[in-house]
Amino acid sequence: MRVFVTGGTGLIGSAVVAELLGNGHTVLALARSDASALAVEGAGAEPVRGALADLDVLRAGAARADGVIHLAFANDFSSPEALAEAVAEESAALGVLGEALVGSERPFVTVSGTPHMPGRVSTEADPLSFDGPVGGRGRAVTEVLDLASRGVRSTAVRLPRTVHNQGAGGFAGLLTGIARQTGVSGYPGDGEQRWPAVHALDAAVLLRLALERAPAGSVWHAVADEGDRVRDIAAVIGRRLGLPVESVPPETYGPLGPIFAADQPSSSTRTRRTLGWEPKHPRLLEDLENIQP
Predict the structure, then answer these.
(1) Residue 134, pLDDT above cutoff 90
(2) Mean pLDDT, the chain, as a whole number?
(3) Which end is more exposed in the chain, N or C (fewer Cβ atoms within 10 Å of the end residue's Cβ)?
(4) What DSSP assignment string belongs to the chain?
């Protein structure tokens, strides 16, 4: 099928585009710059020039496609205001993409984070939170799933806090970046909190399977590592960068501080059993060995 992909040149999106093309699909990919357009063409897809805020472009892209995969998000965590703007921009984009597909029975795959369930491992049956710094994303994804009653084969793939490839990406990548800036490989609190993770190439397979097979209104977890201790993640980062490993205040991470400090393991048992998805690429702690000093 012809698939319209937003965020197709990012760490996850580039893997998704390659996965789709390698399995017989054609791809239209949103490209907000000349460099992105060249990257899309180089991958073998067709660029659609525009940004996530260009709602008319999104509407037209969805109209040309047999299905949509939404991945784009302005990853600006510099302040609560910037994060709120990113969430609002994405919510508007999801609304337009969804409306363009109403009544068509075409697939619409979007993403969110895995939920945080205090005291236990989260599963596909757990709801997303509407509270906190990214609560708006939970509301927007829920609205996408509700489109199942309006003739859209909508589905959500929940991505863990770290989607990685060659040591880069996700919350672990943010820890690496902050470590380079501060000279300390830090972790919030005692570092016993656990973060789920998945390799980008494994996540791409699940996103394709969701596009091809997932029933309307369904939810899936792209989780390979149920939960790696943040202290262990910081230890690998510190060793690779030659930096001390220490506990730091959650405020170090700005608006993401409360999320960074939370224990949030997650399961993908139902996803693996139902869709036959099985991660095959390196786990997070192994992949972090690719960090260059």
Answers:
(1) no
(2) 95
(3) C
(4) -EEEEESTTSHHHHHHHHHHHTTT-EEEEEE-SHHHHHHHHHHT-EEEE--TT-HHHHHHHHHT-SEEEE-------SSHHHHHHHHHHHHHHHHHHHHHHTTS--EEEEEEEPPP-TTS-B-TTSPPPS-STTHHHHHHHHHHHHGGGGT-EEEEEEEPSEEEBTTBSHHHHHHHHHHHHHSSEEEETTS--EEEEEEHHHHHHHHHHHHHHPPTTEEEE--SEEEEEHHHHHHHHHHHHT--EEEE-GGGGGGGHHHHTS---B--HHHHHHH-----SPPHHHHGGG---
Q: What was the pLDDT predicted at 12?
A: 97
* pLDDT at 263 > cutoff 80: yes
* CATH class name, domain 2-162+197-225: alpha beta
Domain boundaries, the chain: 2-162+197-225, 164-195+227-290
What pTM value is reported for the model?
Answer: 0.95
Instruction: Say which DSSP state 214 is in.
Output: P
Report the distance separating Cα 72 and Cα 12, nearest Å.
10
**2-162+197-225 and 164-195+227-290 in the same fold:** no
Q: What is the DSSP letter of 52?
A: T
Q: What distances in angstroms separate CA 280 from CA 153, 205, 209, 214, 277, one per listed residue?
A: 28, 10, 15, 21, 10
- Per-residue pLDDT at 223: 98
CATH number of 164-195+227-290: 3.90.25.10
pLDDT band at 82 (very low <50, low <70, confident <90, very high): confident
Would you state the pLDDT for residue 282? 98
